[in-house]
Amino acid sequence: MAMYTQVYAQFREAQERTAERRAAALYSNLIADLSQLNFADADDRRAFPPTLHSILARHGLFGLTTPGEHGGLALPLEEAINLISATASFDVSAASTLVIHNFLALPCIQAAPHIPEQNHIIWGATRGDLCAFALTEPGAGSAPRHIEASALMREDKVRISGRKIWIGLADWARWIVCFARASGPDAKGRLVGVLVDRQAPGLKVTHEHRTLGLRGIIQNTLEFHDVEVPRSYVLSRDQDGWGAASSSMNRGRIGVAAMGLGALERAIQVAASYASHRRLGKLRMIENSYIEQLFGQMVLRREVVKAMLAASCQLVSAQGAPNVHLASATKVLSSEWCGLVADQCVQLLGGRGYDEGAPLAKIYRDARILRIFEGPTEALLSHLGRCLLSKATRDEIADLFRSVGAASVHGAAIEELSGLNETDGAVLIYAGWLTTLGLAKAVMSAGCFSASDCAAAAADLVSSELATLRTRAPARQSVEVRNWASRTLTTFLEDAACSIRSPVLTDDYLRLVQYV
């Protein structure tokens, strides 16, 4: 028995070494291929480089975590995250394609073995048949509970009607995972996920969104006009599409955090290269003590995001699914700090940073969407704050803090928030930030999620951020104070309407009617 155990351990160790070598080779080859592409030109043309899709397909990146029997790479989540970060360091649009396909849409299909020809569909997806994730609606945003698109459930058919907006990859996709509200005699009114063929009659692409960033990836409005699909293509047979949507979005948040890490790292590289050559008087810019400290803080922020991602991946490995609270906190911190670092790097380059000919302008534009994708920062912070304060979910947050060795941090946050109004939006946001930064401090203090020499300094940075946050702790606002804020806004709008004296605030100018 002892001999068997020893042989088995040696076999597993050899397997792990082989997997590590394979991942390292894949990473190296991908970087080499992406380095040959002109992403700046693709951004101008609002289309990917022609060979990008074939490069990603050749490396197997459309099946990052898909099991090998379905044609995927079967990578551990942490290795998949590394590849997404690497791709994002070249182009956030390209990385977004991998996140939408691998983390949002494909898992919904994999979790539905009853779909006809599921193996064939997944095999095609891993070879480059793109899959889109249609959740967002004009009146609901990405909040699944407010979706109005309907799925009329019949004995052998499902008829889908409704409109989806900002759907990444929609017009390039082979399959679309669409979420709608079930209706009909035997329906329970719950959310359902339905797999729809892009060529299905009644499904129309009516608009291409010209977004501030992510110009390489196509984003469309989809119109479903009585689109009929076989009932066997309902992904959630028990009509619990909420579970499928939330699970995918949690993985998506980890993917967005990885995109933020890659963009953040590239921004630092570009700015540091410039500062190493640019001279301020007798010294190079990078030798200026203020700028040295600024770069030091950027690097520490990067270390915190890396550690948060490592912790998120480790919990997935241990539990089989992302922890919703840690995934949300990781996404918030990565996206917010990526935006901050990109802004600082643009400022360091001065006019050159604002010039579209330099990489930073593109990074700056692309980074902005990360604070919105898979839940805006404010929505996620409100969710985290509500979970921290609510008796129904407080134990979940407490367990998470305990799992990273930070029960005392959780206790201090609860004590600090006692007595505040749990329904006040400002209190929820503040509580969400306490949770996010508290988890970050715990992760950095644990020591097992970061092998960097600057882990202790990064933990100090998070402590400093927490101290700054506490200077902005919400006070108990009286009704008079809240009414004053409302009156101030009303007065401004009336004043602006008189002073501008032009029809700039008409619906035609704002073009918001289709979104609200």
Automatic annotation (TrEMBL):
Where does the Acyl-CoA oxidase/dehydrogenase middle domain lie?
132-227
Concerning InterPro entries, the annotation shows: Acyl-CoA_Oxase/DH_mid-dom, Acyl-CoA_Oxase/DH_mid-dom_sf, AcylCo_DH-like_C, AcylCo_DH/oxidase_C, AcylCoA_DH/ox_N, AcylCoA_DH/ox_N_sf, AcylCoA_DH/oxidase_NM_dom_sf
User: What keywords were assigned to this record?
Assistant: FAD, Flavoprotein, Oxidoreductase
Cofactor section? FAD
Q: Which Pfam families match?
A: Acyl-CoA_dh_1, Acyl-CoA_dh_M, Acyl-CoA_dh_N
The reply on keyword Oxidoreductase is yes
Q: Which GO terms describe its molecular function?
A: acyl-CoA dehydrogenase activity; flavin adenine dinucleotide binding
Domain (Acyl-CoA dehydrogenase/oxidase N-terminal): give its ranges: 39-110
Q: Where is the Acyl-CoA dehydrogenase/oxidase C-terminal domain?
A: 240-387
| Record-linked Gene3D superfamilies | Acyl-CoA dehydrogenase/oxidase, N-terminal domain (1.10.540.10), Butyryl-CoA Dehydrogenase, subunit A, domain 2 (2.40.110.10), Butyryl-CoA Dehydrogenase, subunit A, domain 3 (1.20.140.10)
Q: Give the family this protein belongs to, as stated in its UniProt record.
A: Belongs to the acyl-CoA dehydrogenase family.
* Protein name per Swiss-Prot or TrEMBL: Acyl-CoA dehydrogenase
